[in-house]
Design a protein that fits this description.
about 500 residues; two-stranded antiparallel ribbon; globular
Amino acid sequence: MNLFIKKPISQLLASAEGGEHQLKRSLGSMNLVSLGIGAIIGAGLFSLTGIAAAENAGPAVVLSFVIAAIGCTFAGMCYSELASMIPVAGSAYTYAYATMGEFMAWIIGWDLVLEYAVAASVVAVSWSRYVGSFLHDFGITIPAQYTACPFDVITLPDGSQGHGIVNVPAMLIIVAISILLMLGIKESARVNDVIVLIKLAVVVTFIAIGANYIKHDNYTPFIPPNTGTFGEFGLSGIMRAAGIIFFAYIGFDTVSTAAQEAHHPQRDIPRGIIGSLVICTVLYILFAFVLTGMLNYKLMKGDAAPVATAIDLTPYPWLHVLVKLGIIGGFTSVILVMLLGQSRIFYAMSRDGLLPKMFSSIHPKWRTPWLSNLLFMVFTGFFAGFFPISKLGNMTSIGTLLAFIIVCAGVMILRYTEPNIPRAYKCPYFPQFPILGILVCLAMMTSLDAETWWRLVIWMAAGLIIYFTYSRFNSTLGKSKAYKRKYASG
């Protein structure tokens, strides 16, 4: 059986319409922009900005945000072109199936579990911590044993050391969001829209109020001189900071997983991807400019919460509560969009026979892949509740970057192999932009530590076992009589 059989685009498009596996089309352009913002803006904005400014770029972290945005834009444009050509659930997995064949499609589909499912578990743990802190501000305390996993060391009320039992809030948020996703994409999108409005209001409020407390001396020097070590200020520091905050942009690709639930995917998916990137980039740059203007970058060194320190310079203590609420909202929408994306990836893989059919089972009333949602509710909830998965955060990054590389390569392949297929959106400056996208993402991947690479290798090894023992023998395309006749005839 040929490992590199490709799924014709015409077949992909035909399979997306009609039948018992049809998803409900309920999303417009603004819903998709909101999904992108929901996935992109998380708590990373409030933490990574200070770290990158203090250790790498100083006030020039503003330029780092611009550079990181340019890198994401290359990948975003490639995603938009493929989504306009192949408006089908599955995102990078589906694009790889059409351009590089089944084996590469499996690799990227399995890899995307790292971006979506693992990310949802990691973010749920952080959500639990912030919710606990938020409730504590109002005199409500959750016992420490029930906000930490059995592997976490905690301080008990009597001052002694102990271990957690289970992270109950992390599990509850996974269950609540999974149930919401099962009930319907339209309902999920409405909840996400509300959360996105809240966190956008928080970010805009901080920018508007903080701008009145900027000290222009804090911008001097705008680009601190290099210390003699690569990455510590100067131009190399700006680039290193761009690599760090690049991950604050991760998430826009989730928009493409909802292509089969958009009213007009060829038009709306590119709008959702590029629109969310533009909005988030503008907010990120303004946020970084205000923060480094309020607080000297040297004072951010070792400060775990530079935003809170900056707020202390204002006469508005209620901003602390508002920012914390914004962070919680940011985490909530990220979990929602990550779980949404993961269920749609498995939905697409199941329809192709690479995973059991249960994952493409659509609820007759809700019109959602509810069994896929149920699986990841159990999977991500279990890991969020019982495992110290914070170390898996880099796995999310490496999985995402690999997906970006395959998408950029897919655009180049289809431009040459399928030049006549209609494209509602075309990546400009071809092939320069896709090539730059590949190079930028490769550079980011090589900057990650060896431990992350080993985890990726182990994860992929597990995926290969599943593929060669189940998926390749159950592939719908591989088993089709039409394909076998074509393959046999040479």
